[in-house]
Amino acid sequence: MSGAVEQAGPLVVERRLRLGGTAGPEAAAVAGELEGVVEARTGNGGLRIRYDRARCDFGALVTALRAAGCAAEPGWSGRWRTAWFRYLDRNLRDSAQGGGGACCSDPREIYASRRKR
Fold first, then answer.
1. Which 3-state string (H, E, C) describes 35-76?
2. For the domain 12-98, what is the CATH code?
3. Given CB 3.0 to 4.6 Å as the disulfide criterion, which of 35, 45, 53, 79 pairs with 11?
4. Which ranges are annotated Basic and acidic residues under compositional bias (predicted)?
5. b/e map 8-31, b = 16+ CB within 10 Å
6. What is the pLDDT of residues 54-99, one digit of tens each?
7. 33: left (phi over 0), alpha (psi -120 to 50) or beta
């Protein structure tokens, strides 16, 4: 794994990825080398990855695994799962960068503009 012992922060997520073929231990080694990966282990034909969203994203993991020859689950379900995890990571990143709540539902502004009769 990257680094000695990494603490799990609020942006650590866990993803399970099914692998095609017998690339389990090799895939865990490749994923463990990436920055931000807290844990990578194999089991039941898949790879379980815990990583820090602030330093790594699912797209980078999939790209590194493909470059090493460890293919993800083939077919539409594998593509759907990969797209879904990328969407979740992008949504988490965007939410973390947000500047607070909605601007139009602030009760102070609603009641401040109301005139008393």
1. CCEEEEEEECCEEEEEEECCCCCHHHHHHHHHHCCCCECCCH
2. 3.30.70.100
3. 53
4. 106-117
5. eeebbbebebebeeebbebbbebb
6. 888 888 888 888 888 877 777 888 889 889 999 988 888 777 776 6
7. alpha
